[in-house]
Amino acid sequence: MSSDDQRLPGREPVLATFVGAGLLAFPIGALVGALEALKLVLQGHARYASDGLGAVALSTGGSALLAVVLSIPCAFVARILWGRVERRVALPSACAGLGAGLGMIAFTASDLIGLSLVAPIALAATAFVLLLRELFGWWKPATRAPLWSAFAAVALVTAIVCAWRLPSGRASAAPRNGRTNVLLLSIDTLRADRLGCYGSKLATPSLDRLAAEGVVFDQAISQSNITGPSHTTMLTGLYPAEHGALANGQPIPNRTRTWIEDLAAAGYDTAGFVSGFTLVDAASGLAERFEHFDDHLLAWRWMPEVCTRLRLVKDVIRCLNVRGTRVQRPDRPARETIDAVERWLGESAGAPHALFVHFYDPHVPYHPPAPFDRRYDADWKGEPFVDWYRLSTAERKDWARDPAKYAHMLALHHGEISYADEQAGRLFELLRKNGEYDETMIVVTSDHGEELGEHEIFFDHGGTLYDTELRVPLIVKWPKSANVAAGTRVASQVRSLDIAPTICEAADVKPSYALSGASLRELIDGAAHDDRPAYSFADLPGNMSDYELDARAIAVRQNGRKLIWTSEYWLDCERVAERWQLFDLVRDPGELNGVTSPPSGDEQVDKLRAAVQHWIELTANQSGPLELSPETREGLKATGYF
C-alpha cells in the first residue's frame, strides 16, 4: 500500500458521521449567532448591558441548536454520496457539519431565506463541500470538531450566566436629599365622565381616593385625539405642531427635548413603562429620553426586546403569526406593566425618581380580565369579547343598533376602566409600602377620550375634536410639603400642555427649553382663574366607512365656546368641503347643534377664529416639528391663545 493510500481515511462509522457532523456544526452556528447579536449590540439596539448579553446568549444558543438539527439531514446526504466509492478523501461528518454551517450563514445573511428553505440550502452546501474536498483535500484541523465545540459551549454558558446576573444598567445616583418624586400615570382612552370623582357611577375607588387627597381639574382638555401626539405633549409641554409628533407612529424628533431629560440632568432616576404599541420605542422614539424604558410587548416575557431583531427569532415569529399564534402583542395588561414597575422600584438606588406609566386597557379591544368582564353586564349570554376593529361596517352597525349588544360593549369598556383603577391602586400601594407616597407628586390623566355613540360614532376615536374625545380626567396630588389642600376642585379650563411645567415646578427643575404650557399651581393659589385657551390638533389619516379621510382639524376652546375647523376631505366617494363649527358648550354640552357659519362681529368668536387661522397657516404644509419665531409666538400671545 502506498503512502498516499495510508493517508486516505477508511469508511467512517454511521454513528460517528452524525455525531461528528453535529459537533462541527455546533460551533459554526454558535459563531454565526454570536456575530449577528454583537452586530445589533454595536449598532445600539440593546438599551442595557443585560439585554445585549441576553441577545448574544439567545442568538448563540439558538443558532447552534439549529445548526445541529440541520447537520442530521446533511449527514444522511454525506453518507450517501461518500459511500458510492471505495475510498474518499472527505470524511462525511466534516462535510455534513460544514454544509450545515454554510446553511446557517446563508439563513442569517439573507431575509429571502426562511426556515422552510434553510434545510435544502444546507443539503446543497453539503454536496458542494464534498465536491471541493474531492478536488482539493481539506485542512485537517477543521475536522477536530470536539475542540471547537468545547470553545463554543464555554462561550455560550458564560454569556448566559453574565446575562442572568448582570443588573439592568441603572446608574447609581446620589441620595434623595428630600426631593420630590414624580409619577405621571396615563390611562389610555379614558373620558373624564367615566370616573366616580367626575360624577360617574362606575367603580373607581383608587382614583376617587387619590382625588380626595389631591386636586381635581374639572375641565382638562387634551391637545390631540390620538395617543402618540397627546403623550408627546404631556412629556414636552409643547403643542403637537411644535414637538413634531403629529400622528401615531411618528417618532419624536431628536432635537425636541422633554422634561424627563431635564429631571435626569438634575439627578433624578427616570423610567418609562408603556403598555401599547403606539408608544413603543420603534413608534415613538421615547426610549432614549429615559434612563430605563420598558415597552416589552412579547408574549415571551423573558426575552429582551432586542432579540426580535435577530434573524432566527424574526422568522420563528413570522411562522407563528402565519399559524395564528401571535407572540408580538399590540398591548399588555396593566398588571404586567405594574409588575415591571415593581421590579424597577425594588432596584432603586436611592435617588429621587420620575416615572411615566401608561395603561392601555380602556382602549379597544375591550377585554377586561375576570371579574371585571362581568361586573357591568352579568346577564350577557353571548360571546364575552368582541374586537370592534375586526368587525365589518355592517357588523358594527348591528352592534350599535342592538340595545343588548351596545350595552354589552359599553359594559366591557367600563370593566376595563375599573380594572385599570384597580391596577392604579396597586401602583399607589407600592409607593406607600416604600414610604414614598406622601412626598411623591402624582399626576393621573388620559391622552384622549372615546366616542361611545354620542355623534353616531361608536367605540372609536381619532375622527373628531368634540369633548367626547378631548375632555380627559386630570387629578394631581402634590407632596405633603407643598401644602395644597386635599379635595380641591378647579373649575377653570386647563390643558394636557400644562402638565410639564407643573412637574418641573414641583421638582424644582428649570426647563432647558421654552414651554408653551403654564403651571397648574397658580390656579390653586388664586393667582389666576380664567379659562386657559385649549388648542387641539388632529391629523385624520384614518378612515370612516372604509374610505380615507386625509384631512386635518384644529379646535380652540375657551370660556364655554369651541370653534372647530376641518379641512376638506373625501368620505364615501363624496367630497366634503372645508367647514367651521361653533359650539356654545353651556347651552349645548353634547356639541350636537354647531353653527356652521359663525357670525362675525362677536368679539369672542372673532378671537377664536383668529387663533385657529394662525394655526391653519402655520401648519398648512407641516409634516415635522414647527419652530415658532419670536414674532409668531408674541402674535399668538397677543390674541390670548398661546
Write up this protein.
This protein is of the alpha/beta class and 642 residues long. The protein has two domains: 3-165, no CATH class; 191-297 and 332-639, Alkaline Phosphatase, subunit A. It has 20 helices and 19 strands. A hairpin with a 2-residue loop joins strand 13 and strand 14. The N and C termini lie far apart (98 Å).
Please outline the helices and strands:
Blueprint: H1 3-7, H2 14-42, H3 49-82, H4 92-109, H5 115-136, H6 145-165, E1 181-187, H7 205-213, E2 215-221, H8 227-236, H9 240-243, H10 259-265, E3 269-273, H11 281-284, E4 292-294, H12 311-322, H13 334-346, E5 353-359, H14 393-401, H15 403-433, E6 440-445, E7 451-452, E8 458-460, H16 467-470, E9 471-472, E10 474-477, E11 488-495, H17 499-507, H18 521-525, E12 534-540, E13 543-544, E14 547-548, E15 551-558, E16 561-566, E17 569-571, E18 574-576, E19 579-584, H19 603-618, H20 630-639
Helix pairs in contact: 2-3, 2-4, 2-6, 3-4, 3-5, 3-6, 4-5, 13-15, 14-15
